[in-house]
Every structure is written in C-alpha cells, then in structure tokens.
Amino acid sequence: MDLYARVKQINEAEYAINRLIFKQYKKALASQLTTQQAVLLDIVYAAGKITVGELALEMDISSSAVSQLIAKLEKNGYVHRSVNPDNRREVFITLGPQGLEYFDKQEQVQRAVAERLYAKLTQAELGDLERITAKLMKIAQEEFR
C-alpha cells in the first residue's frame, strides 16, 4: 500500500471515530456557536488572556472581524472584555461564564471518551500512540511555519 493510501485510511478512521464520538455526545457538546466562534474560544482558552490584535493575527482575519465575533460572544457570556490598565487602547479578552462552561463540557466528554475508548488500549499501545502523535505534531509545526 502506498503512502497516500495509508494516510487516507488513517484519516478516514480518525474521522469515523470523531463522528461516532460526536453522535454519542452531541447533547453534551451542543452549542449555538459557529466554527469561527469556536476557534476564537479555543485560542482564548489556550492563551488565558489575549488581545484583540493577537486574536486577529492568530485567526488571520481583521481586528474588526474579531471585534464582531467578540461582541456576539460577549453578549452571550462566552467571553469578557477588559481594558488593559497599562495601555488603554488595548483590550484583553478572557473567557466568561458560558465560555468556561463550554470547556467544562468538553472536558467531561474527553474524560468519558478516555474511559470508554482509550482505556481499552494497553499501556504500550497508548505510549506508541502518544509518541507517534507528538512526532507528527512536531513535523507539522516545522513544515507549516
């Protein structure tokens, strides 16, 4: 089997697993968020606190587009805006109560998936999967910079 066929098989299996997980846990994961809003929340979650300008750079969209996304998310309690006391022109974005709840639900699903699926792998298989995934991530980070 050639490289492309093998990669395609791996990707299709991963996609099928993710579809099954989503189907099983869609009520817990249900949200009214668009894909762009979810991406913005993921970036804020990873950063803890981030500026509108940094979000725009990370998402590769304009600051005004980010501001529009933030306005909708803030209205629904997903994020909170605060002015940087050291630079009044800069606005910090952090998670709001709904944003924290959104990630809490994701964590609950991740724990359930770990118990239902990954717990059925041996320690050696988990170690192999962890090493391979970390190596692939490092290669992707180097290739796509």
TrEMBL record:
<protein>
    <submittedName>
        <fullName>MarR family transcriptional regulator</fullName>
    </submittedName>
</protein>
<dbReference type="InterPro" id="IPR036390">
    <property type="entry name" value="WH_DNA-bd_sf"/>
</dbReference>
<dbReference type="GO" id="GO:0003677">
    <property type="term" value="F:DNA binding"/>
</dbReference>
<feature type="domain" description="HTH marR-type">
    <location>
        <begin position="1"/>
        <end position="138"/>
    </location>
</feature>
<keyword id="KW-0804">Transcription</keyword>
<dbReference type="InterPro" id="IPR036388">
    <property type="entry name" value="WH-like_DNA-bd_sf"/>
</dbReference>
<keyword id="KW-0805">Transcription regulation</keyword>
<dbReference type="InterPro" id="IPR000835">
    <property type="entry name" value="HTH_MarR-typ"/>
</dbReference>
<dbReference type="GO" id="GO:0003700">
    <property type="term" value="F:DNA-binding transcription factor activity"/>
</dbReference>
<dbReference type="Pfam" id="PF01047">
    <property type="entry name" value="MarR"/>
</dbReference>
<keyword id="KW-0238">DNA-binding</keyword>
